């Protein structure tokens, strides 16, 4: 009986080891494919994004100067969001974290198949200061967010060339089902959020940042 139990344990142990190794190789392969897909898009996206606008060199008064002289408030209009289409997917810009040597394209909307290519906008917008960006925990995507300690620079370059610079202020783990916690405080305590699931999928590593320039 003991020998039989021992044999069963060996077989089960071997099966579990094979399953674990298979999962490791699968994740490694998916990380490689997703990283290559993101970098391919990044190269094409970077070529299509125009350089940031330069400061005007003339001293000619602008319409804003004239309105200010007469104490007239100009009408405000919401900025129209630009997207660049690559392989039938729309991209709103590039997110960069220099300390992680990370530069990734960001799709305008999300789905699970799209997350296999690049990070995606989960909700919100850059203009409103409440954008939330999701990505897989692949090493080539957001898998290293937990290495951040706060104070690092985060940069978002919009599809029209506008560059936004942020300071990372918070790195926390939220319950994977805590949607309210993910969105809490938008436009008040932070301007951009990045998140990814932990390996077990029970929690979300969440990075908050505020715009500084």
Short characterization:
The protein has helices spanning 2-48, 63-69, 112-115, 179-183, and strands at 84-86, 89-97, 102-107, 120-123, 131-134, 153-158, 163-175, 192-197, 203-211. It is 30% helix and 28% strand. Strands 1, 2, 3, 4, 5, 6, 7, 8 and 9 form a 9-stranded mixed sheet that branches.
General description of the model:
This protein has 213 residues and is an alpha+beta fold. The protein is 30% helix and 28% strand. The protein is built from four helices and nine strands. The protein has helices at 2-48, 63-69, 112-115, 179-183, and strands at 84-86, 89-97, 102-107, 120-123, 131-134, 153-158, 163-175, 192-197, 203-211. Strands 1, 2, 3, 4, 5, 6, 7, 8 and 9 form a nine-stranded mixed beta sheet that branches. The longest helix is centred in the first third of the chain and has 47 residues, at 2-48. The termini are far apart. Mean pLDDT is 81; it is low at 19-24 and 70-76.
